Amino acid sequence: MHTYAALRARLKSEPATWLVTGAAGFIGSNLLERLLDLNQQVIGLDNFATGKRDNLAAVQAAVGPARWRNFHFMEGDIRAPGDCRSACHGVRYVLHHAAQASVPQSIADPLACHASNLSGFLNMLVAARDGGVSRFVYASSSAVYGDAAGLPALEAETGHALSPYGLTKYMDELYAQLFAHCYGFASIGLRYFNVFGPRQDPRGAYAAVIPLWMASLIEGLPVHINGDGQTTRDFCYIDNVVQANLLAATIGDAAAVNQVYNIAMGVGITLDQLFETIRQALESRGPPLRGRRPGYRDFRPGDVHHSQADIGKAVRLLGYRPAVQLREGLARAVDWYAGRPPAPRAAAGDWSNLPVATHARVASRPSS
């Protein structure tokens, strides 16, 4: 039986308590949904800086009332050590995805990036260590490769950082290694390459390219490519990222722990090719897009020009097998964005769409 299939079957019969930080975000809410589908108990921590209450409401609708009762949400901030301690109480696995996740935003505000991605990360490491967490899985990024010239990217061959975001993610990896050395605390870092899929926000100044282009084409707005269109990226559908997280959290092989892994497809595609693939996928649903063409503008500061992962280490040590290929993932994403026009972002603290029972301030969380 496939490693991931065997793991899903085992988890359904062996529920545990998981903490997902950034649970109201794109990746966090997809992790939450899969864990609840697998009969797990889940704590969610988010401060709604970028997460959306609508994402939690969507998970609730997807999993149904019985499984939703296994979720306890805590409104809190990883920059507050007390919030981290409360969130880690009684938890076996941590999937840490709360972060400031934008390269240009980190350049515009490096202090905020440092506070969330480095100080917040250290707060979570300390809280998880002190709380007796069995495994700490955290989101790193392909941005740690910086100006490294070699392709495909190998985990051991990083370059110089090109943004505060990339630097903080690399520092997170060093802190995790240090905690393994000093305290014997087990962690695994996942270097994501351009993740995409349902619930990824197409709005705002720092929207990722796939949701931004899909929303723009659907709404008849211009599409812009930063650079000459020959920039390459390794796009990875969200289901593959969920797989990697569950494998990393539960892997029993000691050689696989306290490592970092590339999580991607291992295939590069130019932005010109990506645009045409998205255009064709949308056109298959009916909108007349044959004449649509992107505009071109300057490269953004901090962006690498070419990115492609070597995923051999994750395949070998974690049993990672990306199951959803790019075209299938884009088709699924098109179905989601075309069928669910994105709503305006809600203000933090607006809980009109969530049951009162799921919302608790960190300080009032009951023991688990």
**Can you count the helices?**
12
**Element pattern in H and E:** HEHEHEHEHHEHEEHEEEHEEHEHHE
CATH topology: Rossmann fold
Q: What is the β-strand count? A: 14
The unreliable regions are 342-359, 361-368
Main sheet properties: 8 strands, parallel
What is the average per-residue confidence, as pLDDT, rounded to a whole number?
A: 90
Quick recap:
The protein has 368 residues and is of the alpha/beta class. 41% of the residues lie in helices and 15% in strands.
Plain-language structure description:
The structure is a single chain. Helix 3 links the parallel strand 2 (41-46) and strand 3 (71-75). The protein has a single domain (3-364), classed as NAD(P)-binding Rossmann-like Domain (Rossmann fold), CATH 3.40.50.720. It has helices spanning 3-13, 26-37, 53-68, 81-88, 103-108, 110-130, 164-183, 209-218, 238-250, 271-283, 312-318, 326-339, and strands at residues 17-21, 41-46, 71-75, 93-96, 135-141, 187-192, 195-196, 224-226, 232-233, 236-237, 259-263, 269-270, 295-297, 359-361. The radius of gyration is 20 Å and the shape is globular. The strands form four sheets. An eight-stranded parallel sheet has the order 11-6-5-4-1-2-3-14, sandwiched between helices. The chain has a two-stranded parallel sheet with strand order 7-10. It starts with a helix and ends in a 7-residue tail after the last strand. Helix 2 packs across helix 9 and helix 6 (110-130) packs parallel to helix 7. By secondary structure, it is α/β, with parallel strands linked by helices.
